[in-house]
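Q: Got a minute? One more chain.
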Amino acid sequence: MKRIYLRGMYYTAGIVILTLGIALTIQSKLGTSPFDALLVGLYRTFGLTIGSWEIVVGLTMIIFNSIAEKRRPEMIALFTSFLTGAGIDFWVHIFRGMIEPGTIIPQFVCLLLGLIISGLGIAVNIQADFAPNPFDRMMLVLRNLTGLNVSLSRGIISIALVIIAAFFGGAIGIGTLIIAVLSGFVIHVFMGIINRLDEGLSGTSPSYQKR
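A: Always. Here it is, folded:
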């Protein structure tokens, strides 16, 4: 029971932290991650909200993954997309008019804060190992279909997302490159910290080491 409680706590906290970081990268106006750049591009082209497109794109990925693996859709993953979309819209609404850096140094500060905070959120979510993320699941599906390793699979999907995002006028910039280069390192560092914290709280091995 204690372990389930911890997983739920990690899952909820991870999404709150992750979406805070995503909103900061969006507000930096220097570029976001490839996935978030696509969401911003769809928002600019068709309206709705960035968070709404998180849900739509997440559902599309769930359906694709289901067809590729020839099994039922993991609809629980849509729950993650829904919460993430709601969180993004919440933080963007809070920051609008309050955090809108207009010069390069504040923009970079905003971007780097967003990168660090979202990296922490991803690490916390990985520790939760609760509901699958559609993007991460697609990465694993591509790996299984092609025999490529995880890094190459993730890179291919990221490149495809950047191309599609560019077509829709997405949030692509120097920040997109910085996030692509540094996010893995940031996540790795936080995973080590959270691993030690989790061992202290639960006395069990962390879930991400078993994956």
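A: The chain has one domain: 2-205.
Q: Perfect, thanks.
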